[in-house]
Amino acid sequence: MAGEDWLLMGTGMTMALALGGFLLGALIGTLGAWSKIAGNRPLRFVAECYTTVTRGIPDLLIIFLLYFGGSSALTLLASLFGHSGFIGFPGYIAGVIAVGISSGAQQTEVFRGAFYAVAKGEIEAAKACGMPILLRLRRIIIPLPLPLPLPLPLPLLRHAIPAFGNVWQLVLKASALVSVTGVAELLTQSQIGAGSTGKPFDFYMAATMIYLVISIFSGWLMRRAEVHYSRGVRR
Q: Residue 131: inside a domain, yes or no?
């Protein structure tokens, strides 16, 4: 297999990990922010514990806990049905869940901050007009749908777009840690190519450039989205 094929396959897996983890984190962040803003005391306590604990431990540790904990659970469950061998938890699924849990804590605070950035007068006016909570969310609080053909209407508030760019960069870098589960993402494929050809500098430099291209392009997209959704808003 040519070196370009290794890098191409690794890039595809890296993007799959990063996008899957980011979208899962957006879902978790939505639930976490709602719990902190509108939930009762137990929900607020759970959400606060989640964000505090998750942001306080390394991403690599979360990956280890999910991968090895999931493998132990699957092995134990299989033993109940007479299976005696070890069953490993799928590395890709463990990686996506781990990255999603990690980024979800960050996105919880992003959503919460974006909510409080909405003018209180707009929310009070909606309440005065008799708008129910779901209608207020759809027309006032969450006015900007994500401009991608997704099955779920994941929101992107204008105030949250810059912070989402930062979270995406963290997710992209965290995807490289999933290599410990055996997933052949970009960094792993670079190591394989370097070992097979004896040209480590070439492969690692190529991986560096690919990461930079993805980062720069995604940053450009975020800036374009921020400019687009800020039209008509006085800075």
A: no
